[in-house]
Structures are given as C-alpha cells and as structure tokens.
Automatic annotation (TrEMBL):
Gene that produces this protein: rpiA
Binding site for substrate: 28-31, 84-87, 97-100, 124
GO molecular function: ribose-5-phosphate isomerase activity
Pfam families: Rib_5-P_isom_A
Organism: Fructobacillus papyrifericola
Protein name: Ribose-5-phosphate isomerase A
Length: 239
C-alpha cells in the first residue's frame, strides 16, 4: 500500500483515541493534515465539543478552515491527546521529528499532553534512529557559530534552505540546521549536549514522549509504550 494511503488509514484509525469533550493537540505535516480533516468530519457528524491546540500556523489555519475550534496553548488547562506525524520511529517509540520545521511547537505541545499518538507509514519505522537527518532549531543570531560547533562535533551540519538564497525560517523566525546523527551511539547524551549549546532552541529528538504509534498498513498495526508517563511525570520542556 502506498505511503499516502497508509497516512490516511492511520489518520482514520486515530479517531478511536478521541472522545467528545477532549482538548486535542494537532500535529503538523501531511499525515497530521489527514488527521485534522478526519477529526473535523467526526466533530461535525457527531456534534462533538472538541477544542484543539495547533503546533504550527499551517495546522491552525487548516483546522480553522475546517470549522474546528483552535485555542492558544495558554488558553487551555490541559491537553488530553496529541496526534502528530513523525519522520523516523524506532521500536521503543523514540523518534525524529521536524521534517516540516515544526519541532519546537510540536515538542512544547507534546510534553504538555496526557497522551501522544504518532501516525506513520511503514517506511518510517527504523531499527535505529539516524536515517533521517536530525533537525535542530537555532536562533538566527550566531547561527553560523552554532553551525561550526556542529562541524566540530562531526555532525555534518547543513542549513535548511527555503530556496537557493534564503534559509528556511520556522514559525518562530528561527533557522533549522539538519545533522547527520547516523554515527552517534548515545542519542540521550546527544540530546543533552544539543540542549546545552547556547543558541540552540530545540532539537527534533523526541525520546520517551510518544505513547502509541499507529502504522497505517493493511492491516493497521499499533505499537504501544508499556508504561505511559502522565504529562506531569514527563521531563519539563527545558530538559
Ligand atoms: O515538523 C514537522 C513534523 O515533525 C512532521 O510531523 C513530520 O515531519 C512528519 O511529516 P509528514 O507527516 O508530512 O511525513
């Protein structure tokens, strides 16, 4: 089954996770967009009262255009469930995100969510993370200096470009530097190192955050984390 069909399948299956009255975090990207569409259909069919929180301008606009209520994250007291896509996922449900440059808001929302569900197609499952380049969000000021640090760390950095001349800007106006982490042995250590570099805002390693992955194959497969962490047991977003 092609990847697009799998994404749609997973998005439909994720509706089983949603209940009337929930506050739902909306991810970003093509798979999350299928979920937003499916959620909007369900909300209108069932006349549900659902509030959403978006992880990007793109997802907020899509959700609003489909008649969903989109709140600012600071207007809600809790997020019951967040449904998002991912770029690469290992068997322990660690993942790489940020292929669509939305990793910062995605991580803020995910770490405040009671449950995180990722929707993927089979091609994104990987025995070990590192096939996908790791996106790192850095402030524009001194970005070239941070880039040099990544060179010294042997991470073969490259600035994400919008076009031939301009660097890609995130929703927060930051730059993205993509890193080759295929040779890195300890990803938790790398995550800590990255967070300790001044100028780095966030990285796309999502370790211990996802509770369930839904793979949109035929039949649908699900991988669940055995012990779920509640939102307040998760590391705070600065960790
Ligand atoms: O920044 C973007 C996000 O992390 C996406 O969720 C991720 O890139 C997957 O996107 P897609 O569903 O389009 O493959």
């Amino acid at each position: 089954m092609d990847q697009d069909r799998q994404k749609k399948n997973a998005a439909r299956a994720a509706l089983n996770e949603v209940q009337d009255g929930m506050v739902v975090g909306l991810g970003t990207g093509s798979t999350a967009a299928y979920f937003i569409q499916a959620l909007s259909n369900r909300v209108h069919e069932e006349n549900w009262r659902i509030e959403t929180v978006a992880t990007s301008k793109e997802s907020a606009e899509l959700a609003r255009s489909l008649g969903l209520i989109v709140k600012d994250i600071d207007e809600v007291s809790a997020i019951d469930l967040t449904v998002d896509g991912a770029d690469e996922v290992d068997p322990k449900l660690n993942g790489i995100k940020g292929g669509g440059a939305a990793l910062l808001f995605e991580k803020v929302v995910a770490l405040r969510s009671k449950k995180n569900v990722w929707l993927i197609d089979e091609s994104k499952l990987s025995p070990r993370l590192g096939a996908f380049l790791l996106p790192v969000e850095v402030i524009e000021f001194g970005a070239q200096q941070v880039y040099r640090t990544f060179v010294h760390m042997g991470l073969h950095p490259r600035f994400r470009m919008q076009n031939e001349r301009d660097r890609k800007k995130t929703d927060s106006g930051h730059n993205i530097i993509d890193l080759d982490i295929s040779a890195v042995a300890d990803l938790s250590q790398l995550a800590e190192q990255l967070k300790s570099i001044t100028g780095v805002v966030e990285h796309g390693l999502f370790l211990g955050i996802c509770d369930k992955a839904i793979i949109g194959s035929d039949p649908i497969k699900e991988i669940e984390r055995p012990q779920r962490q509640s939102a307040d047991q998760r590391p705070v977003p600065t960790a």
